[in-house]
């Protein structure tokens, strides 16, 4: 108690003693005290990871507020936003690390020819917009199997995507297919194993088609996360995080040890973005995001 009283007396003396010089002298002392408290201080990041966060996980927070807070935490980008939200990101100096808006949905994708006309029209319009805005990654999906075996799904995806690859190459845009689990969240989704997605990339044979490796999803469907990343990293353009089980905070409450996973990703030479895509359970969602950034800053 005595220490706290002494501290307050000292601050009062500083403020009183500098009043004649104007508020500009006194206020920095107060501002410094506030900014260096643990709850508000910007984390000291190592600079090895390009940190991002998925917009939808923080839908209860206005985008301006998310961008402002994220920028202070060390975010370089926001994931899964479309053209209408790009100006807000740019206002805060944040990148759109994974663009969306061309897909039909998660279940109607490139593995079914009946969706090709709509998908080709959508992506043909979106690819130039992504490039004009200065961005690179545009998400896409395989769609659900609906009885199709792996080989049929691969052939259909190749047939549809090969019609877009030349346009993507022209504009230096990468079509990035997300790996999703079919065990819990996305029943019947076809691109549910890394080997299947890598085979699709091999058949397309273009640097403008890659995979989005979602660590949460792939832990559920195949596990062996670090060795899988080491094996298939040439085909991976982007990473998403998430706690297992539950897809919540990536802290000590779940089974994945993210510091080791992030180190393994960096060891492959990866220079892209790693985006937080967990659903915060804690009331202070931004505090959970800040902690996740620190955990993944290796």
Automatic annotation (TrEMBL):
Keyword Isomerase: yes
Domain Xylose isomerase-like TIM barrel residue range list: 89-278
Coiled-coil stretches: none
InterPro entries for the chain: Sugar_Epim/Isomerase (IPR050417), TAT_signal (IPR006311), Xyl_isomerase-like_sf (IPR036237), Xyl_isomerase-like_TIM-brl (IPR013022)
Pfam family, one: AP_endonuc_2
Alphabetical list of SUPFAM superfamilies matching this protein: Xylose isomerase-like
GO MF annotations in UniProt: isomerase activity
Key word Transcription present: no
Range of residues in the leader sequence: 1-31
Keyword set, alphabetical order: Isomerase, Pyruvate, Signal
Listed name of the protein: Hydroxypyruvate isomerase
Organism this protein belongs to: Pedobacter westerhofensis
Lineage: Bacteria, Pseudomonadati, Bacteroidota, Sphingobacteriia, Sphingobacteriales
């Amino acid at each position: 108690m005595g220490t706290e009283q002494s501290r307050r007396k000292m601050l009062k003396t500083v403020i009183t003693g500098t009043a004649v010089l104007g508020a500009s002298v006194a206020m920095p002392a107060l501002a410094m005290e506030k900014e260096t408290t643990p709850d508000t201080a910007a984390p000291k990041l190592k600079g090895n990871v390009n940190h991002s966060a998925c917009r939808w996980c923080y839908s209860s927070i206005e985008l301006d507020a998310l961008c402002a807070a994220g920028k202070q935490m060390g975010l370089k980008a926001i994931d899964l936003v479309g053209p209408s939200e790009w100006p807000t990101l740019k206002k805060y100096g944040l990148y759109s690390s994974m663009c969306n808006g061309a897909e039909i949905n998660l279940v109607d994708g490139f593995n079914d020819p009946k969706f090709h006309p709509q998908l080709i029209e959508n992506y043909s319009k979106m690819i130039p917009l992504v490039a004009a805005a200065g961005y690179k990654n545009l998400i896409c999906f395989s769609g659900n199997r609906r009885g199709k075996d792996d080989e049929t799904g691969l052939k259909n995806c190749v047939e549809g995507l090969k019609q877009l690859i030349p346009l993507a190459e022209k504009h230096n845009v990468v079509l990035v297919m997300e790996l999703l689990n079919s065990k819990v969240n996305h029943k019947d989704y076809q691109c549910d194993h890394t080997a299947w997605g890598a085979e699709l990339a091999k058949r397309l044979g273009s640097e403008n088609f890659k995979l989005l490796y979602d660590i949460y999803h792939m832990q559920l469907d195949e596990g062996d996360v670090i060795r899988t990343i080491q094996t298939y990293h040439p085909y991976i353009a982007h990473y998403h995080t998430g706690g297992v089980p539950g897809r919540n905070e990536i802290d000590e409450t779940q089974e994945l040890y993210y510091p080791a996973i992030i180190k393994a990703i960096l060891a492959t030479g990866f220079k892209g973005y790693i985006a937080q895509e967990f659903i915060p359970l804690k009331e202070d969602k931004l505090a959970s995001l800040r902690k996740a950034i620190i955990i993944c800053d290796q």
